[in-house]
Structure formats: C-alpha cells, structure tokens
From TrEMBL:
GO cellular component, one term: cytoplasm
Biological source species: Carpediemonas membranifera
Molecular function, one GO term: phosphatase activity
Full protein name: HAD-superfamily hydrolase subfamily IIA
InterPro entries xrefs: HAD-like_sf (IPR036412), HAD-SF_hydro_IIA (IPR006357), HAD-SF_hydro_IIA_CECR5 (IPR006353), HAD_sf (IPR023214)
Keyword Oxidoreductase: no
Record's keyword annotation contains Cell cycle: no
Keyword annotations: Hydrolase
Pfam families registered for this protein in UniProt: Hydrolase_6, Hydrolase_like
Domain of life: Eukaryota
Gene3D superfamilies (alphabetical): HAD superfamily/HAD-like
Length: 351
C-alpha cells in the first residue's frame, strides 16, 4: 500500500505556546452512540464552553459539516454546534482538489448517489463531479449483467452528459452503495487513463495503452475500517472499500495503488484542526479525545498532542496494554464527561 497523506512531517499541528488548554473531539462513540447521546455529554460540553476552552470537532463522517451539526445537536438535546467548528473527513478536499477546478475533465465520485452535482460542489468542494451511479446508468454494459436495473433514481442533474468523458481523478467520498459496480468503474478509470466507456477503453488498448499501472490519482476521505455506533460491535465503514480496491488493483496490475488519504489519522486533517484552534486563540496543551486507537489516538500521538481514549464506542472493549505503541493513549477516561472535567482543570490551572 502506498499512501500520501497530503501533509509532511513539517506540518504545523501545534498551537501557540502558553498556558491553558484546547481540545479536539471525535463525535461518534464519544458524544453519541448512534442517535443517542453519551450520558452527561450535554452538560460536559456546556461546562467546557463556560470555562472558555477553545475546541473543535474532528470526525471521519462523510456527511457535510451542516448535516453533522444538526445530527450532533439532535443527540445533545438541541445544543447548537457551529458547522464551522466541525471538520469532517473530506474537509481537506477543498485544498486537495483545487487544482482540478481549472480542468474541464470531470471527477469520478463514489458515495454520492442521489446528490446533485451542484450540491457536491457546494457541500463537498468537488468540482465537475460525476457519480458512479450516473456512469452506470449511462453505461450499463460497463458492469456485470446481474446489476441491470439496480440503481438509484435519477437526481436533478440526470445521467452524465458526456458518455465518453475522460475522468481526471477519483474521489471516494462515502461508503459505496454498490460495491461491485463501484469497484469495476473505479478500476476502469484508474487503469484506462480515466476512461469508462467500452469504445474508449478498446481504443486505449488498441493504441498500446498500459493497463497495468495507475493513470489518474485517487482521493479517499475516510480511512476508518470500523466505527462505534449503538450496535455492541463496531460497524464496517469506508476503509473497507479502500482495502478491497487496493487488493484488486494489486492482483490486476502487480502494482501498489497510490492513494491520497484525508481523514484521521492522516496528518492533513490534524493540521486543518490546528489551524481552526489557532484562529480561536488556542494555546497551550492540545488534547485529542476519541474512542478509536487506530484513528484518533494514532493521529494525535503522531503530531504530539495529548491523546485521550474514552471507554465508549470502539474504546469500550480495547485492551490498551496490547496496542501497538503508536496507538496507545496518554490518558484513559470512562467517558467524555471525565475527559472534559480534566481538560477544564488544566485550562484553569487547577491541575
């Protein structure tokens, strides 16, 4: 697996020197479990705000910040959370995909069935987006016959306008709605220089095109394999699609797939969060509170933040003694309530 996180070791993920504390919170498994709030979380967040502790939310959800704000408010008894304070997995796409704004070639996007191209541009910062569902409805012969007739209703934009479109990149925004369909179309675009139309692929091969290498970049928003919900066991999520795609690409080409990864634990997402904290006047120690050792804790440890694991969500059944060194938390708390109580004490100089 080859991975480029989008930010190097020199990334500035600290806050200015000084006393006090600021913090970054995961959402799922920390403040809520499914649609239910963690007991006491609403009051704890209120105490954090009352103490004036700068904070933001860093989540690997694929929803927009606006939708994430509404979902979090619903779980926290109506407590308002500013969408500007929520960093989702694809927030860095605004910068990562900006070079493609000047290109006329579209971007093939996984996980946006039933979302109009206009909304994808506005909410997700992806220019010239075409969903895999639109490609399939335009080119049903591109996928196995068993998929015939299995697709989402047409969105406001209809199917893609140019059946011979040559994609400039692939962006995996959210969980695939149809693994077989999306796997086939993404592999075609990667191996055949952005082409999905059978005639264009035939011409590519007839002209001696190399189908055993990667021709266009692919961006992933969320690397998580699992996430914590109301179910007693962690649930599968977007990282599974990446794992399957990497395996298939390796089997077909003999090469490792070169991936540009956003989302935790990639440094680019922590850099993005640190920028927001600095804008809020954050100074002193930075605490990262999360439930996923391989995501929240690993990312925080890599950038030198104080990593705090909570025993809710995925963290409920984690044996910290057996974790790899980079996934071991600096501190462990029963819930976010106790974590916030400690952070407030640090911020107010009572620790």
């Amino acid at each position: 697996m080859a991975e480029r996180a989008g930010a190097g070791a020199d990334s500035d993920v600290t806050c200015s020197n000084g006393q006090g504390a600021c913090c970054v919170f995961d959402v799922d498994g920390v403040f809520r479990l499914g649609h239910l709030s963690v007991p006491g979380a609403t009051g704890a967040l209120a105490s954090l705000r009352e103490a004036g502790v700068p904070h933001v939310f860093l989540t690997n959800t694929s929803a927009s910040p606006q939708a994430s704000s509404q979902e979090l408010a619903h779980a926290l008894d109506g407590t308002y959370v500013d969408p500007a304070d929520i960093i989702v997995s694809h927030s860095p796409f605004q910068d990562l995909l900006s070079p493609f704004r000047v290109s006329e070639r579209p971007i093939l996007v996984v996980g946006i069935d039933n979302v109009s191209a206009g909304d994808v541009e506005t909410l997700y910062h992806i220019p010239h987006a075409v969903s895999t569902d639109d490609v399939y409805r335009c080119l049903p012969a591109s996928c196995v016959p068993a998929l015939a007739g299995i697709h989402s209703p047409a969105n406001d934009e209809g199917v893609m306008r140019d059946a011979h479109a040559q994609f400039a990149a692939v962006a995996v925004m959210a969980d695939s709605n149809n693994l077989t369909r999306d796997m086939q179309l993404v592999l075609d675009a990667l191996r055949f220089d952005g082409h999905c139309h059978p005639d264009d692929i035939r011409q590519f091969l007839d002209n001696g095109g190399d189908d055993r290498r990667q021709h266009i970049p692919i961006f992933f928003a969320n690397p998580d394999m699992v996430y914590g919900a109301a179910h007693p066991a962690p649930r599968l999520t977007q990282g599974c699609f990446r794992l399957m795609l990497e395996s298939m690409f390796k089997a077909l080409t003999g090469q490792a797939l070169d991936v540009v990864q956003a989302g935790k634990p990639s440094a680019i997402s922590y850099e993005y969060a640190a920028g927001l904290l600095r804008d809020k006047g954050g100074a002193g120690s930075v605490f990262m509170v999360g439930d996923n050792p391989a995501s929240d804790i690993r990312g925080a440890n890599r950038v030198g933040w104080t990593s705090c694991l909570v025993r809710t969500g995925i963290g409920a059944r984690v044996d910290t003694e057996t974790l790899p060194e980079e996934d071991r938390p600096a501190m462990v708390f029963p819930t976010v309530v106790e974590a916030i109580a400690h952070i407030v004490k640090v911020h107010t100089g009572k620790v």
